[in-house]
Amino acid sequence: ATKRAGATARERAPAPETRLSSPTKIIFPDRGITKLQVAEYYRAVAPHLLAGIAGRPLSIIRCPSGAGKPCFFQKHHTAGLDVVRFVRLKEEAGINANYLVVDDLAGLMELVQFNALEFHPWGSHADTPDIADRIVFDLDPGPNVPFAEVKRSAQQVHDLLQQLGLQSFLRTTGGKGLHVVVPLNPGNRWPLVKQFAKGFAEALAGSEPDRYLATATLKLRPGKIFVDYLRNGRGATAVASYSLRARDGAPVAVPLAWRELAALKRGDAFDLDATVARLKKQRKDPWAGIDTIRQDLASLG
Ligand code: ATP
Ligand code: MN
Ligand code: MN
């Protein structure tokens, strides 16, 4: 089959959907969730998930034996993928590699057939890999940090960004922390984005050293929140909104409106059923406007 390297979604005829094998295989043992149910979840959220991953280099976490069993992180295109295309990009080491790119539902479902459970896009697009259009502040609580403190830190990051003239968006990770996402439009080159994110994190940690850490080598310390700015670099990823997590309970990374932060109980508050139910009754996208807001780092005052 053709690999469709370089072809855009528009040039291609819609691909037929991949047949799902082993639909009764249990993927989340604690919940008895099958591969078919995972596929149905991804079909239900596809337009929302694709909004955050389509056309971007994409890493996936594949769990061939389900969430409780060994999973692996995959960045590169591999044999057997017919619908999912790839983009050939320079790696840090200077060699080229074929990165996964999904454009549509058919590509998404092919990866689900390949036992992908989690989706992690770059903060840039495949055709402009050096131009970031998303900054992610990944707030990682160490042991013994109450979730209320993580919430307070997300609000603080939001408020400081707003003072700089930057609008930001909130996401649960399906794990322990929260993500604060800043859209850039037009985008900025990665070195500037990385410098900004590092400077922001270090300034925050410097202002409240008892609460925050911004040192990559220290990471998780009891009682402190690591402001992980390292998601912001060429080739770095963050989990996509509406991605499942390969963790107990089938949690999902869910975009929230800032006014929802107060009532949020945990980073893994939404599982797959809660996420689908939320989407059904949702009148307005909590991240409405993220693709049209015009703001960037070069034009900050
Ligand atoms: P949590 O809220 O529990 O921290 P998280 O998704 O933010 O959930 P992190 O461990 O903070 O988890 O990782 C942040 C992001 O960094 C991940 O979503 C993933 O995209 C990326 N990442 C994490 N581990 C790896 C890895 N081993 N290789 C490549 N990228 C990784
Ligand atoms: Mn995190
Ligand atoms: Mn992290």
UniProtKB/TrEMBL annotation:
Q: Outline the extent of the DNA ligase D polymerase domain.
A: 34-287
Using the UniProt annotation, give all residue ranges assigned to the region (Disordered): 1-21
Per its UniProt entry, which superkingdom is the organism in? Bacteria
Protein name (Swiss-Prot/TrEMBL) = DNA ligase (ATP)
Q: Organism source for this protein?
A: Noviluteimonas caseinilytica
Gene name tied to this protein: lig3
Q: Which residues of the full protein are shown?
A: 544 to 844 of 844
